[in-house]
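Forwarding the complex inputs:
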Amino acid sequence: DTGVSQNPRHKITKRGQNVTFRCDPISEHNRLYWYRQTLGQGPEFLTYFQNEAQLEKSRLLSDRFSAERPKGSFSTLEIQRTEQGDSAMYLCASLRGPDTEAFFGQGTRLTVV
Amino acid sequence: QKEVEQNSGPLSVPEGAIASLNCTYSDRGSQSFFWYRQYSGKSPELIMSIYSNGDKEDGRFTAQLNKASQYVSLLIRDSQPSDSATYLCAPSETTNKLIFGTGTLLAVQP
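Prediction (whole assembly, two chains):
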C-alpha cells in the first residue's frame, strides 16, 4: 500500500455516459499526476497539479476530459460522453514535490461498452 | 520524435546474467531521471533515480546517465526470475513534468 487511494477500482460504463474517478494522495504531497495506461504501453501523461493549480494538460487530451483538485487535496478526473477508446487503466501518482519519487495508486480500470 | 524512447522488448535473459535496459529522451533540459518497475497488473514503483552524469549503483542495479547523448540506462546484475517485469524510464522535463517511456518488458528465464 503506497498511501495513494483511487476509487473506484473498476468501472464499466456504456458509451456516451459520463464517469468520474477520485484520487486521494498522500497528505503532505503537493504534486499530483493523472496518467492513462493501455496494455503494452507506458503511462501516458494526462495532467498534473501543484497544490490546487493545474499546471499542464496533455495536448492529446480532448475537451471531454477535465480534472480538478479543490483545496489541493483529493483530485477528480471526469470523462464526459465516454467512447470505447477511453477504455484503459487510469493511474494517479502523488509526489512530495518536483523531481521526487512518484507513489502510484492502484488505478481505476475503465471499460466502455 | 517521441519524448522518451525505449525498446519495448521482450528482452529475454537467463537467470544470473546481466540485463541491460536503454532509454533515450528528447528534452535536453531534463535534469532528473527515474527508473520504475511495473509488474503485470500492478502500478509502477521506483527502483532508481539519477541526477548526475555517470553511474549510480544500488545493490544489483546500476543506472548510467549521459546527458550529452541524452541517454540513460539500467543494468541489472545477477538477474532473477523475480526481476521479470516492465521497466519504465521516466525523465523529468525542464518544466519538472514527469513523463514515461513505453517501457521494456524483461523476462528472466530460470
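Chain B touches chain A at residues 4, 6, 8, 31-32, 34, 36, 43-46, 49, 51, 86, 88, 90, 92, 95-103 (CB under 8 Å).
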